[in-house]
Structures are given as C-alpha cells and as structure tokens.
Amino acid sequence: MKLYFIFTIDGDWDEYFSTELPRRKRRPDRKGLLWLIKKELKAARFAGGKFLHFIHTSPVTRQYFFQPDFIDIWKKIEKTGGSVGVHCHEEGLFDRGGLKDPVMLERSVRSLTGPLREKGITLISYRGGYLAFCEKVIPILERNGLFLDFSCSPGRYLHYKGRLIADWRGAPKNYYRMCYEDHRKEGKSNVVTIPLGKIRKRALYIDIMPLTDIWMVARHLAGKGKNSKGNIIVSLLTHTYEFSSVWKRLRIVLAILICRCYGKFVTDKEALTLIRTEERNKS
Ligand SMILES: [Zn+2]
User: Fold this and answer.
1) Residues of the domain holding 213
2) pLDDT > 80? residue 215
3) Ligand 1 ion: Cβ-proximal residues, 5 Å cutoff
4) Total domain count for the chain?
C-alpha cells in the first residue's frame, strides 16, 4: 500500500475566531474543550488511534494548555497511539506572504515545545494558524526539532484582514523536503511538509467538503499511488470545534472510513520514518 493518511485536528475553539470580543472572552471554556478533545480520541479509534492533535498557542492563550487536565489528555493521546503538535496562531506576524518577526514566531513555538517536552511529550510536527507559512519559518522549525510541517495546502492563496498570510501556489501535492529559498519548492532543508490531500478545489478538509469530494480525492490519490514508485503521504484536516455535535462527529468518522478503503493511517512519527527510509533507498 503506497497511500498514507495522517488524521490531523487543529485544536481551535469557536470563540478564538470572534476577534471583536475582548481577549479574555476569546479563551476557551476548559470543561467544554476537554469534552471535545475526548470526543476526538473516540473518533480517532476508527483510524487505529492514529491522529495528530495540534495544540493551539496565540496571544490569547499562552499558558492555557499546560493545566494538569490538559497535560493528562496530551499524555493520553500519546498513550493510545496518537501525537500532539504545535499550532501557532500568529497570523498577525505575517504580511505580503512573509513573516515580519521571526523572533516572535520562534518565541511562540518555544512557548509550547519547552514546557511540553519537559513533561515528557514528544513533538515533531508544526502547523501554522490559517496555514500561514513562508521560507523564514523553516530554520525556526529546524532549530526546534519540528521536522514535519502540515501548513501546506497546495494552491492556497489567503488574504486575512487585507494582508496576504499564506501563499501555497504551485506547491507539490505530495510530501516534499522544503527549499530554504522558497517553501513551495522541493529542496534540502531538514523540514518535510505533508500537504493537505487535494485535487484542484477538492480537499480532505472534512469541515467544509462533502463526503463525496472526500471520496473522490481519496480514490484519485490511491490511483496515483498505484502508478508512482514512491509513497504518497497527505493529511486530512478538521478542528476541535467540529466535534460539538453528533452529526459532525459522524461525518468525521465516515471521512476516516472512506479514506481507510484507499490507504493506511499513520502517525507523524511513522510518516517521518517512511520518508527517511524512502530517501535512503533513493540515494
Ligand atoms: Zn487554527
């Protein structure tokens, strides 16, 4: 089998996106959020427990996810076969497709990696909020041991509040080692990006795509996998706030089951091993 999926969940909640609210009101409800993450664990059982929960950090919540209840749940995710990653919502630092303040972004990355690694949690994956990214992010990830990026959504060209924060036009549709000069090109950096599974406008973006589109993307990728020499590794995307209703959870499970017909779910660590093995075999 040559097609691999990584089931990723961005750990965001509704109030964060209500930018008109004062900062304190944009913080999550602790109990509500813990309940939602427990539902993530249940749904992930359909992917063999293999999922990647991205822990949110932003100016709204710096220390929030180090509370004992959350640390316990991050450890539980690891214990049941999943992983956690770093999700920096620092969209305010991006402009014209570039990062204005690398020092601030690195501080944001370390605000999660430092305390979580101290607690014994392994982190190798990163995803930018709103999938924001540019080549200046690559050395930051390298320095902080985040060797997999999940910010790539091929073709994405996103303006937020009048500013360009994500430009993935022309990026490959399968995983690739990023180029130091241009994150959308293959190169020699130590960071591999695993894109969101996509064909043209259809994507494995569970929240917004009909299940028929999920099916078409998975089937298309499986067909490509059969003809290609190497592996295809892509991600599926949903968010923590999507676990709020039974219907949405059912949709998420169905998306997983559809993908399972065409490929295999792996963890971020397994994906990195697959990628490194393939690179060794090529050289
Ligand atoms: Zn997010």
Assistant:
1) 3-282
2) yes
3) 10, 12, 129
4) 1
Q: What is the mean pLDDT of residues 124-144?
A: 97
CATH of the domain at 108: 3.20.20.370
CA dist., res. 226 & res. 117, Å (int): 39
pLDDT for residue 1: 56
Distance of CA 26 to the CA centre of its chain: 22
Instruction: Using the mean position of ligand 1's atoms as its centre, give its distance from the Cα of residue 144 in Å.
Output: 20
> How many A from CA of 12 to the centre of ligand 1?
5
Angle, CA of 213, 158 and 267, to the nearest 5°? 55
d(CA 25, CA 195): 33
- Going by pLDDT thresholds of 50, 70 and 90, the confidence category of residue 228 is confident
Is pTM beyond 0.85? Reply is yes
Ligand 1 centroid to Cα of residue 223, in Å, is 31
Mean pLDDT in residue range 129-153: 97
Ligand 1 center to residue 89 CA distance, Å?
Answer: 6
Look up residue 54 and give its amino acid.
Answer: F
